[in-house]
Amino acid sequence: QSVLTQPASVSGSPGQSITISCTGTSSDIGRYDYVSWYQHYPGTAPKLIIYEVSYRPSGVFNRFSGSKSDNTASLTISGLQAEDEADYYCSSYTNYRTWVFGGGTKLTVL
Amino acid sequence: EVQLVESGGGLVQPGGSLRLSCAASGLTVSSNYMSWVRQAPGKGLECVSILYSGTSTYYADSVKGRFTISRDNSKNTLSLQMSNLRPEDTAVYYCTRTPDFYSYYMDVWGKGTTVTVAS
Question: Closest to A102 (Cβ–Cβ): which among B44, B111, B112?
């Protein structure tokens, strides 16, 4: 059982928007603005797409956005494209000086 | 190009040992927090070990006393010595880094190396 809670799967049609939630505790998401999100295609290296709650690394499309409220973070993907079909993981730094992750959400583009 | 490349995975019997290596290029392993993150089959990601600045380390309770993380600055590599391996250690192991000692996210990941613990 993962420390952060994500839905196992979400789906959407091309052009639509979807949101993936990530729920933690007051020791991680609720304590720090150090939430990050990763996109993972099986067999490849996970890719950072959001850091520090809402910042996008260079080269990541602005269709990806992040937010946080209390102990829950969210990743929103707008204008869904077929290439967005992947697994998405949230992560947070914690007061134990480590990182915790969610169980991952499989995004299906219908 | 900034890159991390893991090696050393394989099939090992319960109780056995393996040493994972992570070769860095385009970055310096001594300038960042370096860590090993694993993904067991059908499971989420788990941070099993972190090497902070200097020699300060972190180990998940599940591997404490069995795994040892280290870095070789001269070879620009990160290692994970794993001993007394258990079937539940079966996973893909990723080498990761933070951009610096003031950032708390992992901006570079390797493609992973697979460890299978089975008889």
Answer: B44
